[in-house]
What does this fold into?
Amino acid sequence: MSRVDPNSRLAALLLPVFAMRRHGDHGIGDTAAVKEAISFCAAHQFAVLQILPIHETVGDHSPYNPISSRALSPALLTLSEEAVPGLTAAILAEKAPESWLSQLRAGTVKHGAVLAMKLECLFAAWQAFSHGDEAHALAGEFATFEEQNVSWLPAHTLFRVLIEENHGNTHWHDWRPEHWTPATAETWIAAHSERERLEDRRRGFAFIQWVAWRQWSEVKAFADLQGVKLLGEMSFGVSKSSSDVWANPDLFDVNWSMGTRPVVYFDTNKDSERLGQNWGLPPYRWENHRSRGFAWLRGRIESERQFFHFCRLDHLRGYFRAYMFPWPGGAKHSEFAKLTDAEILDQTGGLSPRFLPGPDEEPTTAAMNDLQGREIISVMQEAAGDMGLYAEIMGAMPDYMRKAIDDLGVANLTFPLLERNENRALMPVDTYRQLSLVSYANHDHAPLAAQYSRLVKMVADDAGSTEAKDLAELLKFARWQGDAPAELNAELLGDLQRSLFATPCVLAGLMSSDLLGIPQRFNLPGTFGSDTWNERLEHSWSEYEVHTVYGPRIKKAEELIVESGRAARK
It folds into this structure.
């Protein structure tokens, strides 16, 4: 059983798949790199490997803006003859020559080039798999996969073909009218003069999803052999330009965009400071989900269960009530951030950002929020079966929300540097909820090295600043004796890790940056564009293990995990 055990005390390592690096990769982390990370966890007493969502994206490479709630990312697949049926050394040499790979491996992820290269290789493998002189030995397995995924796969593969036919444009509402619905698109493709080519391409996309299913199933089996649990994640929403919204428009409200109101518990870009984060995701029409027995949501959870032992539920408070904007996200949100309140109302016809069902501050709407959240979370728990759920819910919670997750037994996330009283003092660890995952940072936060560097600089400029109080509280939390070092050194890093592992929380997680003590950050909330979500580790884990600086830090963290009683192997 993988349900969250309230009596366990374990340690986790967090790292996005795209950021992983291994010898011989194709410019991005892949399923083979995940296996290497699992082996690293097993070798150093981390019981859990936590990753971000792994679903398919196009154009916008944020894992939280997928074009499908079910389709897996082709970019994260391992390209090898063993991992991809039909793939050959000749195909790899032609489509992914070493001269190009060395360029792609350098620095950050070049998402556009990497995805295009991987798709070329995978479609070449499809041609070899499907058009050989004899039927491939795994043809029956592929056909079974298609049959078992008929609830979503045909619509998604048709959607992917239509993206190509519309020159890479995922915004289906801008397509020609006969492409606007699955029914009219099926009629269009059936009458097309190149129907055979289009249908072959469509099955090629199905083949890629089968390959992805095989590879991620193998990853989970490998983790089981190594004694490591996988903690995946289900993004809160899906892209407005997704096959889900295209095929099920009645389940979403495409006239509004979900996000958050302005928050103070972590840094964001300037636009988000004023108006809040606008993710551009369409809100759910829960009344229509309810009328279908929440089938779409259940299928989503059951899909994650195939690949993970635990699942992090992104933005859990959004299931209680959604904050939404009457304008799109991205560049449009930046434009609105420059307008006055009166100008915003003029642009929207009098509409303002709002909560639905309503704000938490009003008792009547808070009660409605509570009922909705409890219902939806109960559905997800039922669909999860033995897959444990961790809820991402940051900042102060309304009383009804805290009581709901207690009553439902849902594990949540705890961030020590966000747990403060009215005087900015860090809350004592004995106030932390035991049924939670405690971590200094995740992908949206600055890691310890960056936070510490900022505090030291601010205190040097103004010893009476708020940052001086924050720095003192951080050192106190680490039980640090003496003056603050000029930078986050190995000793202070170790003390901070020891304090984290000493908390009563069932799972204590270190982001890769906070294991190594480096300032690498994976996302700044509110940012968008091609230069986001592309950070990679500088080395593979095997190289970090023997590194003169990072090797001893890894060894120290392992010792602290054992010392704290969180070791994977007791």
